[in-house]
Amino acid sequence: MAVKMDMIQRPRRLRNNSILRKMVRETRMDKSSLVYPVFIKGGVGIEEEIKSMEGQFRYSIDRLPYKLEELAKAGIDKVLLFGIPEEKDECGSSAFDDNGIIQKALRSLKMQFPEMYCITDVCMCEYTSHGHCGILNGDKVDNDKTLEYLAKIALSHAEAGADMIAPSDMMDGRIGAIRRMLDSNQLEHIPIMSYAVKYASAFYGPFREAAGSAPAFGDRKTYQMDYHNKREAMKEALLDIEEGADIIMVKPALSYHDVINEVSNAVQVPVAAYSVSGEYAMVKAAAKAGFINEADVICEMATGAYRAGASIYITYFANELARYMDEGRIG
Ligand code: PBG
């Protein structure tokens, strides 16, 4: 006869079957919190796969509706738009050109998909010939001069129909500069989601291939954060809120759950986590090699970010996650 153990608490009792496991889930998520990043490029009929991001494409504006249709069907109603311009110059002027790629895309998109919520990435690295996220003075990025440009880009996006502005450049004071610019142009209703806590990360590698935005010299360490630091994340987040940020983003997501957690405890605004290109590429590569189960890993990664404290999740796997949430696999 088996020995009868004297135990009052048995944690396994609540793991007995899937109905019960779902009942006691501590982390709840919903596809309304998912945001899908989209790369938009000039030209016609373009739908080109990004080599390092299998399953992700650069779309020309005319091909965008097919993708958006698919997203809408899956229940994704928020996109984060990245532009790949045809022309680059020293000061990234195509970024604030009324006929720039994002501005054109916004106008066409808003006409065809009025229900799709369009967040635009505001940065200069895709638009500058040197690939840095600001205006150069010699080999240094001139912070204060860059602010004028970022504000102009944000204004031009909002005027073209952007629903929300997401600055990712990491210059000091840019949230304030953008907020003032929007407010003085009757755009005080447009929220800002700040890439407030953005680390200088090797996980952005595939994105730079996708957007052609790798710096021509040096790196981004004088503006993006050093990943040894966590207290500094609080400083960045709180500063951006003081300057008017409505949502604070932590980026990347994987490897930064402690930061997501602490930021979400410290602030009283929603916290977004961006699961970046390198996270996507790693999952894809390992799954393709047969080393992991792709769907299971996607679910576990996403849940980790929410469990850490994110309430918005920006991911190239948005489509898949919406399905997994619908199926009750997670959420
Ligand atoms: C632009 C920007 C980057 C990403 C989002 N906005 C690249 C970078 O900072 O080098 C990365 C997104 C990703 O890797 O998925 N500054």
From TrEMBL:
<comment type="subunit">
    <text>Homooctamer.</text>
</comment>
<comment type="similarity">
    <text>Belongs to the ALAD family.</text>
</comment>
<keyword id="KW-0350">Heme biosynthesis</keyword>
<keyword id="KW-0627">Porphyrin biosynthesis</keyword>
<feature type="binding site">
    <location>
        <position position="123"/>
    </location>
    <ligand>
        <name>Zn(2+)</name>
    </ligand>
</feature>
<dbReference type="GO" id="GO:0005829">
    <property type="term" value="C:cytosol"/>
</dbReference>
<protein>
    <recommendedName>
        <fullName>Delta-aminolevulinic acid dehydratase</fullName>
        <ecNumber>4.2.1.24</ecNumber>
    </recommendedName>
</protein>
<dbReference type="InterPro" id="IPR030656">
    <property type="entry name" value="ALAD_AS"/>
</dbReference>
<feature type="binding site">
    <location>
        <position position="125"/>
    </location>
    <ligand>
        <name>Zn(2+)</name>
    </ligand>
</feature>
<keyword id="KW-0456">Lyase</keyword>
<feature type="binding site">
    <location>
        <position position="133"/>
    </location>
    <ligand>
        <name>Zn(2+)</name>
    </ligand>
</feature>
<feature type="binding site">
    <location>
        <position position="220"/>
    </location>
    <ligand>
        <name>5-aminolevulinate 1</name>
    </ligand>
</feature>
<feature type="binding site">
    <location>
        <position position="316"/>
    </location>
    <ligand>
        <name>5-aminolevulinate 2</name>
    </ligand>
</feature>
<feature type="active site" description="Schiff-base intermediate with substrate">
    <location>
        <position position="251"/>
    </location>
</feature>
<feature type="binding site">
    <location>
        <position position="236"/>
    </location>
    <ligand>
        <name>Mg(2+)</name>
    </ligand>
</feature>
<keyword id="KW-0479">Metal-binding</keyword>
<feature type="active site" description="Schiff-base intermediate with substrate">
    <location>
        <position position="198"/>
    </location>
</feature>
<dbReference type="Pfam" id="PF00490">
    <property type="entry name" value="ALAD"/>
</dbReference>
<keyword id="KW-0460">Magnesium</keyword>
<dbReference type="GO" id="GO:0008270">
    <property type="term" value="F:zinc ion binding"/>
</dbReference>
<dbReference type="GO" id="GO:0004655">
    <property type="term" value="F:porphobilinogen synthase activity"/>
</dbReference>
<comment type="pathway">
    <text>Porphyrin-containing compound metabolism; protoporphyrin-IX biosynthesis; coproporphyrinogen-III from 5-aminolevulinate: step 1/4.</text>
</comment>
<dbReference type="GO" id="GO:0006782">
    <property type="term" value="P:protoporphyrinogen IX biosynthetic process"/>
</dbReference>
<keyword id="KW-0862">Zinc</keyword>
<feature type="binding site">
    <location>
        <position position="277"/>
    </location>
    <ligand>
        <name>5-aminolevulinate 2</name>
    </ligand>
</feature>
<dbReference type="InterPro" id="IPR013785">
    <property type="entry name" value="Aldolase_TIM"/>
</dbReference>
<dbReference type="InterPro" id="IPR001731">
    <property type="entry name" value="ALAD"/>
</dbReference>
<comment type="function">
    <text>Catalyzes an early step in the biosynthesis of tetrapyrroles. Binds two molecules of 5-aminolevulinate per subunit, each at a distinct site, and catalyzes their condensation to form porphobilinogen.</text>
</comment>
<feature type="binding site">
    <location>
        <position position="208"/>
    </location>
    <ligand>
        <name>5-aminolevulinate 1</name>
    </ligand>
</feature>
